């Protein structure tokens, strides 16, 4: 069901500045998708942000957003790293 999850085992290595650019981009996209999802869910309801986080935010939701954010990272960003 979650084919986008890959387990990679390795020792911790500090990301290079170029890798940090990709990570930064991924974080921005992740947050963008969280807020888009929040507005989709709460647009026609009276859910507060707190209720949204409580009722609609779980580990599966976060993993799906990470996958969506990763799919949004452009080839240009990856090639520049």
Molecular structure report:
With 81 residues, this protein is mainly alpha-helical. It has one domain. Helices cover 67% and strands 0% of the residues. It has helices at residues 17-42, 49-56, 59-72, 75-80. Helix 1 (17-42) crosses helix 3 (59-72). The chain is elongated and about 45 Å long. The two termini are 30 Å apart.
Quote the beta fraction. under 5%
Rounded average pLDDT: 80
Structural class: mainly alpha
Uncertain segments: none
Query: How many structural domains are formed by the residues?
Result: 1
* Biggest beta sheet attributes: none
Task: Report the principal-axis shape.
Answer: elongated
Helix content: 55-70%
Q: Determine the N-to-C terminus distance.
A: 30 Å
The number of distinct helices, counting runs of at least 4 residues, comes to: 4
Annotation, overall tally of beta strands:
0
As a whole number of angstroms, the C-alpha radius of gyration is: 15 Å
Order of helices and strands, N to C? HHHH
């Amino acid at each position: 069901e979650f084919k986008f999850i890959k387990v990679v085992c390795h020792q911790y290595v500090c990301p290079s500045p170029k890798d940090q650019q990709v990570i930064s981009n991924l974080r921005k996209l992740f947050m963008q998708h969280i807020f888009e999802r929040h507005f989709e869910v709460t647009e026609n309801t009276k859910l507060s942000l707190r209720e949204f986080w409580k009722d609609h935010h779980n580990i599966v939701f976060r993993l799906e957003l990470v996958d969506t954010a990763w799919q949004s990272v452009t080839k240009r960003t990856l090639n520049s790293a």
